[in-house]
Design a protein that fits this description.
heterodimer; A: two-stranded antiparallel sheet; 17 helices; 1% strand
């Protein structure tokens, strides 16, 4: 392997990414029925957001409480395209205005609003899924970081933006579907996304995109940019005095996190079949932060496992003890923050990995000892 | 949008909406005062602040039930007992939370946000289990009912006036406590330079605990006053938390005067616009303007001049 590839993907990380890929692309599909697998696919679409948060919160020190906004924007772009296809004039012949989505008809709209028009085209939609959230993130982050607003203030303002967007979507129900969101999505270019076969294909697409995103994030992390991010997080002024324009790096990483979230949102819409404001607001945005915190805010793979674990626990608990789930989630927040600030990945690299290394060493003394990978999974 | 109203009607509309805004203003100020102490002075983000307020509201509800059951003749005065109880319980809970959680996190302000969010989830579920998911309201004593007619078009509800009086008293109290008392001086000393404050013999841990507890106690009183104008449910606190944080940030986090000024601006803008636009659009516009101004002027309206 060339030196370049080696430095951005050390052996340990490669093995771990391969393990994750095997787990989600081989073991899960073989061991679960399509209903459960679809649920896992839904969780994996949240993992995109957690991945973005690792980069921008764990490495960049920018806590955004508005990642749901980008998740939602990506998801809504996808949903608008699917909804337009589902409301072709033949399908909606019983409406007073055929050819527009059903909720618009219920709200006495007689023509398609202008911003819905371009979503007839799939290629435009594909671009918009990434472009709309990234442009929005760019505007917000330029306004904030150029003025050196950061930390707590940034968190509160992103949270307010999440609140604004939710109220706007719910209030303008003629244009957005209101509190129910955009539902009843059927086909993608004539391909029915509701069949089991389509769900399998979408699940694998989601997995492939996730692995791809992990590789991109890994590349950023190992590049000079990643080092600068960590330096900025720990001593921003020193980086600034060394001649770097701190704000540009922050803007870039925030936009990248937004792009990941948007991708996740689009995959969510495709797999679950609807999009609603309940995935945009404050509560889901903070929940996504906890996925990342449980997995480990400094570990890309930890974030994915954390997302899977928290959502799995949520499904199990809220099915059997709905009352207890919120207590559990609250305790999880407090426990992770107080006792395990580096989450599962921190526990793994402090306790499990040394034991594992020892065991491997004793198992085969001829083999060279595994390098301590604390630096790989945490730095 | 003004065209279809006559001048005198417009005056009345503005007066009535202005008064409705004043009630919203009182709730904002009461919530934001506690938050301004905790966030502005200590730098702790207390996402459970709304739940402390709701705790105060539930205590008021319990006290009112207790009085109407056992002490009907004293019912007209139950509110003052309830307010005192609400303060004491939330103060105690605040001190407990500071001891168990917050004091470990002073160096990590973003983490206080996550931990207190967890606390708020637990409290919400606790309220839901104990009081049920429905909203509850208190019975007002007779002397708080009704309204006072100012002109034939403008009527002013008495409970609103009462809530505003409470707000005024508490604001003045907090001002004197923060800026005129010995305790307040110690709090400000700890905020400005923790090591030096410790070196001159201030017990910084104790100051932290009392400050946090006091902020929570004021939230409890806010909740008590809140029952006068609205009903209480397990998630009512969450509705106000983002607005309140914006109020505090918009006013300039370390300035009490700024907090009051920004609470006034935001509440008046929102309630005046609510009459002419739909409620959700009024809120969206207000929040957008606030966020926009904060992007231009991140330090808020009023800020202390300090070197960073």
């Amino acid at each position: 392997m060339s030196y370049g590839l080696r430095s951005f993907l050390p052996k340990n990380d490669m093995i771990n990414i391969l393990l994750l890929a095997v787990l989600i692309m081989v073991i899960f599909p073989l061991s679960m029925d399509i209903f459960r697998l679809n649920l896992v696919g839904k969780y994996l679409s949240y993992a995109f957001v957690a991945l973005g948060l690792v980069l921008c919160w764990g490495y960049g020190g920018i806590l955004s409480l508005g990642q749901g906004v980008f998740f939602g924007l990506g998801g809504y772009c996808m949903a608008m395209f699917l909804k337009l296809e589902a409301s072709s004039p033949e399908n909606t012949a019983i409406q007073s205005t055929p050819g527009i989505p059903d909720f618009m008809d219920w709200n006495q709209l007689t023509a398609l609003p202008w911003f819905w028009e371009p979503f007839h085209s799939l290629s435009f939609t594909m671009i918009a899924i990434i472009a709309v959230p990234v442009i929005f993130a760019f505007i917000v982050s330029v306004a904030m970081f150029k003025r050196r607003v950061g930390g707590v203030y940034f968190a509160i303002i992103t949270q307010a933006i999440a609140a604004i967007l939710t109220i706007l979507i719910i209030g303008q129900q003629g244009y957005t579907g209101g509190v129910n969101g955009i539902t009843d999505l059927r086909t993608l270019k004539g391909w029915d996304i509701r069949t089991d076969e389509a769900k399998y294909i979408l699940y694998f697409v989601c997995c492939a995109l996730l692995i791809g995103s992990i590789l991109v994030a890994q590349f950023v992390r190992k590049s000079k940019l990643g080092r600068l991010l960590v330096a900025m997080r720990d001593k921003e002024d020193r980086v600034r005095f060394s001649g770097y324009d701190v704000s540009n790096f922050k803007i870039f990483i925030f936009c990248l996190a937004a792009a990941f979230s948007a991708l996740g949102g689009a995959m969510f819409t495709l797999q679950v079949g609807f999009m609603s404001p309940s995935f945009v607001g404050i509560v889901p945005s903070i929940e996504m932060v906890i996925f990342c915190a449980v997995g480990g805010r400094l570990s890309l793979l930890g974030a994915v496992y954390g997302t899977l674990l928290v959502n799995w626990a949520k499904t199990v608990f809220s099915e059997s003890f709905p009352e207890l789930w919120l207590f559990g989630l609250g305790a999880l927040f407090i426990g992770v923050v107080l006792a395990f600030p580096n989450g599962l990945a921190g526990v793994y690299s402090t306790y499990v990995e040394p034991m594992l290394a020892k065991w491997l060493k004793s198992l085969k003394s001829a083999r060279p000892p595994m390098p301590s990978s604390t630096a790989d999974s945490r730095s | 949008m003004f065209a279809e109203y006559t001048a005198s009607e417009l005056t009345s509309i503005f007066a009535m909406q202005g008064f409705a805004g004043l009630i919203l203003f009182s709730v904002f100020v009461l919530m934001a005062l506690g938050l301004a102490i905790i966030f502005g002075q200590m730098g702790v983000i207390n996402m459970a602040h709304g739940e402390f307020m709701i705790l105060g509201a539930y205590i008021t509800y319990l006290t009112s039930n207790l009085f109407s059951e056992y002490a009907q003749n004293l019912f007209s005065g139950y509110f003052f007992v309830a307010m005192l109880l609400a303060f004491m319980v939330t103060f105690a809970l605040g001190a407990l939370v500071e001891w168990a959680m917050i004091r470990h996190l002073y160096k990590r302000p973003l983490d206080t946000l996550l931990a207190t969010w967890g606390l708020s989830l637990i409290l919400q579920q606790l309220y839901r289990t104990v009081f049920g998911p429905r909203e509850v309201g208190v019975t007002l004593p007779d002397w708080l009912m009704g309204s006072y007619p100012l002109t034939d078009m403008i009527e002013i509800p008495i409970n609103g006036i009462f809530v505003m009086c409470i707000t005024l008293v508490i604001s003045v109290g907090v001002y004197f406590w923060m800026f005129k008392s010995r305790w307040g001086g110690q709090v400000r000393a700890v905020v400005q330079n923790r090591e030096m404050a410790g070196a001159v013999g201030i017990n910084t841990e104790k100051v932290d605990r009392i400050t946090f507890a006091l902020g929570c106690g004021i939230a409890g009183v806010a909740g008590s006053a809140f029952t006068m104008v609205g009903s209480t449910g397990p998630t009512s606190g969450q509705l106000y938390i983002v607005d309140t944080f914006l109020v505090v940030v918009f006013g300039g986090a370390s300035s009490l005067l700024g907090t009051i000024a920004s609470a006034f601006t935001i509440s008046q803008a929102q309630s005046t616009m609510e009459f002419f636009l739909s409620g959700s659009m009024a809120k969206v516009l207000t929040l957008l303007v606030v966020v926009g101004i904060l992007m231009l002027r991140p330090q808020g309206l009023f800020s202390l001049k300090i070197r960073k």
